[in-house]
Amino acid sequence: MDFNLTDDRRMLSDMASRFVREQYPIEKRHEIAASDSGYSAEMWTQMAELGLIGALFSEDVGGFGGAGFDIAVVFEELGRGLVVEPFLANLLGGTALIGTNHQSLIEEVIGGGTTLALAHGEPASRYSLAHVETTATKSGDGWVLNGNKALVLSGDSADKLIVSARTSGDATDAEGISLFLVDAATTVVRGYPTIDGYRAAEIALKDVSVSTDALIGDEGKGLALVEKAVASGLLALGAEALGAIEVAIDLTLEYLKTRKQFGVVIGKFQALQHRMANMMVEREQIRSAVINAAGHLASDERDWHASALKNLVGRSGRMIAEESIQMHGGIAMTWEYAAGHFAKRIVMIDHLFGDVDHHLELIAKMQKPAA
Q1: d(CA 88, CA 106)
Q2: pLDDT band for position 2 (cuts 50, 70, 90)
């Protein structure tokens, strides 16, 4: 990422880049994605030892980073390798625990020994974070949870779930949402691969009993924790998209320099040069949006910049993905060629935690930050 990195972040970027480049070729990625678990426990352990998980969290919870730029640096490099290990799921889950009675669990996540997933979305919730129909009712010294969670990222490989459930109010009320720490083994999990090679799960909670201590934070105040986690997730996705876009552009440029038609390399055709220039301009726009979102992750303007980034990644990312495919031609649609896999991930990122239209609506409702 081309901005003024500290020495520590530059070392982190170089280390992550070298590991992904040398240890995570596209063929290895396909092999891991096709496995039963959808990720490599061995790779996850190595990445934990390198500090890539710890970089996502601050020192006071056992990490050594946790700022917006730390998250952006890590996820940009993950995007360059289309890394399928559950970084996003653990960032979401871990961030939701920060400042609560369960934040000590983050140290286990950083060490690679425990994996988390945020089980918040539901079949009827679409992109609304406040729509929660899952219920938690008090029973003796604990709670009983009932409901269904949808599209839980890496939910089928998680040891612990951070589950949102309504303890009061109607299904769309902002108040009355509570978070609970639940053992994944006590739920019914149906995992499946996503179209871009990652993993998700549908999770059913049927009379799942948890202790009083399972409540995360204050009763009825869980939405703020979810919003904080999702804001970090939006930054991570934007940075991941930037890394994938960099590779898609590099692959396209290399193809234009080598593919010949009518006796000349097609990169000499002015129309294709203009299209490539447009792709590069949009990439720099996304880079600037990532920097803005990273710099404002801990500010009152967090949500505006996160939505602005997600909206831009959706619009410009799709354009870059489609242009990459079109300028390659049919070869880009083959399984063996990497460009199509990067394009799929870029396009699918638009649909995670709100698409272009959703975040445009959110931006319209928020006050624009002062220049």
Answers
A1: 14
A2: low
